[in-house]
Write a structure and sequence with these properties.
Layout: H1 29-34, E1 37-42, H2 46-57, E2 62-67, H3 71-81, E3 85-88, H4 97-107, E4 112-117, H5 122-130, E5 135-138, H6 143-154, E6 159-160, H7 162-175, H8 179-190, H9 194-200
Parallel strand pairs: 1-2, 1-3, 3-4, 4-5, 5-6
Length: 205
């Protein structure tokens, strides 16, 4: 997320956005402003926070609600906004992802969550989806990708980057294999042919 425009005090410009604006519909600008979905930003980094505020403010159909550098502030903002999208770093909470999501759901049931993190293992992505996240993006993702995730969440849809989706699919495929299938796969990747594997391991036929 290194190209988004939002100048902050001190002369730093963390983002330079050249991507087209995403829209939630074909209505006019006034109608979009009236029906805009609020976005609550929950990240601890001031630079990232500033860039994300600029991203949200520049996206048709979305409206910046508030920034929350702490879990307490995040909960308060989400409860006040009620129906909103929360773009947040799961590291903001002191507990695991499951407890974090459950607490957020309990305090603000209508919030749609998009997680932004530099930790995105297939297991973590799978758990995030299981516990109700609408999307998951990397902190280093392109602005257009973060915007796409927010727009999808505002439409009550889900979003995963193509890379995350591929990793998740690969992980799930391997997880579903039996120990015998994993063993055969290991021999195949080593270059052994089916006939050789069958002759060496007759019980795997």
């Amino acid at each position: 997320m290194s190209d988004r425009s939002a100048e902050i005090p001190g002369g730093e410009v963390p983002f330079q956005d050249q991507t087209p604006r995403a829209s939630l519909g074909g209505e006019g600008a006034a109608a979009q402003a009236d029906g805009a979905v609020k976005v609550i930003i929950g990240v601890a980094s001031p630079d990232l926070q500033c860039g994300l505020e600029s991203l949200v403010s520049g996206t048709a159909g979305l409206a910046f609600g508030c920034s929350a550098p702490t879990m307490d502030r995040l909960l308060a903002c989400c409860m006040e906004a009620e129906d909103c999208v929360a773009l947040l770093d799961p590291a903001l909470g002191p507990h695991g992802l499951r407890a974090f999501m459950q607490l957020l759901r309990m305090m603000a049931a209508r919030v749609r969550v998009v997680l932004i993190s530099d930790m995105h293992s297939p297991h973590m992505v799978r758990e995030a989806i299981r516990w109700g996240a609408s999307g998951f993006v990397e902190k280093t993702a392109e602005p257009a990708e973060i915007r796409a995730a927010l727009v999808a969440a505002a439409r009550s849809q889900r979003y995963l980057s193509p890379g995350m989706a591929a990793n998740l699919a690969d992980s799930s495929a391997l997880q579903d294999l039996t120990p015998r299938e994993v063993g055969v796969l290991a021999l195949l990747t080593r270059g052994d042919c089916n006939k050789l594997i069958s002759s060496l391991h007759p019980n795997w036929r």
